[in-house]
From TrEMBL:
Lineage: Archaea, Thermoproteota, Thermoprotei, Sulfolobales, Sulfolobaceae
Name the UniProt record assigns to this protein: TFIIS-type domain-containing protein
Top-level division of the source organism's lineage: Archaea
Organism for this UniProt entry: Acidianus infernus
């Protein structure tokens, strides 16, 4: 995993993920967050769509 430094504080940011469910399926967002000031940098967004019995994974970023 690459190291990302906060643009404000210059310290190492934490890699985190959050998920959100809706009627289409689920969205997973990966991002870096600074533990000191809370600044956030989005890394990627993944959409997991359920269609019938299959699952489609889309990477948006
Ligand atoms: Zn910071």
């Amino acid at each position: 995993m690459k190291e990302v430094l906060c643009p404000k504080c210059g310290i190492r940011m934490e890699f985190m993920a959050e998920t959100e469910s809706n009627s289409e399926g689920r969205e997973v967002r990966y991002f870096y967050r600074c533990p000191a000031c809370g600044a956030r940098i989005n890394e990627s967004i993944m959409k997991i769509l359920k269609k019938d019995s299959s699952v489609i994974i889309k990477v948006l970023q």
